[in-house]
Here is the input.
Amino acid sequence: MTDASLQITPQVSGNAAVPLLEVRDLRVEFVQNGRLVRAVDAVNYSVHAGETLAVIGESGSGKTVSARAITGLLPKTAEISGSAKFDGEELLGLDEKALRRRFAVDYAMVFQDPARSLNPTMKIGLQIREAILAHLPISRSEAKSRAIELLQMVRLPAAARRYGEYPHQLSGGMRQRVMIAIALACHPKLLIADEATTALDVTTQAQIMELLQSLKQELNMTVVMISHDMGLAATYSDEVAVMYAGRIVEQAPTRELFKDVRMPYTRALLDAIPRADRARHSRFPVVPGRPPVLTSLPPGCAFWPRCPRAAEDCRQQVPELVEYERSHRWACLHPIVPEGAAE
Here is the structure.
């Protein structure tokens, strides 16, 4: 058993009526080869304490850039504007020292590839211990005890022995558990899981997602889950925001979204989910075409070149993200109409 002072206790947001994370009109721009790239364009969302928001989209949709913008993990060349409030306090505009002070304590990230995130020359226990010592005023022996406790919390077998092992001695799933332990080192209120299961096999992926779900409930955490997998969103999120070409194109509570999809892009992502009842050797459904190049977006709706419902006005007008139904927003001039309803 570890010292009582090292026990992790659930965090609670100061005001339940205020979103724990509130993002408004977030824009991120880069200059690439002399051309302006708007990677994130007028993104708005909020997440309340204890909720899970899934931000879904293909590679290059802007989902990871938007998360890194609010946590201060983008290069200095990025031009960031808008607002991102954490527990009512503005994050954008804080200096590097202030952001570093809040990162890991108030919010933390679990990244896609643990093999690249962990130091291969350093024992995993020391990496967790250093993360603790960087933010908490405790001794090295206390930090070691807490590191082993965290390894136990993320269900890593033989935690005390694993403390002295190197990353290459662990499987991919074990390494991701270590990354989760590092993220939880200071017990943040908000955990951002950035494609945290993409590099894992299906069985291990399910185990990691169940672990994150269990830890969320146990520690009363809030989660922003960044993924391209609509199946994961359906199972583990409370709300889904679908991104395309830097913009949110559909957003709704998870149950509502899957019951009544309106955006053709969202429908295409859903259709691409592997299903056991598909005929053997049948052609696997994919989203047609390729994601747009952000330096040369087509005029009008960015999705029209790939959209089966595209009309002439789609080529000229950028659809606004509007709440047409309670808590359900979409950006489409010719949305999918529910079966039995009039066009």
Residues 115 and 175 are 7 Å apart (CA to CA). Residues 202-219 form the longest helix (18 residues).
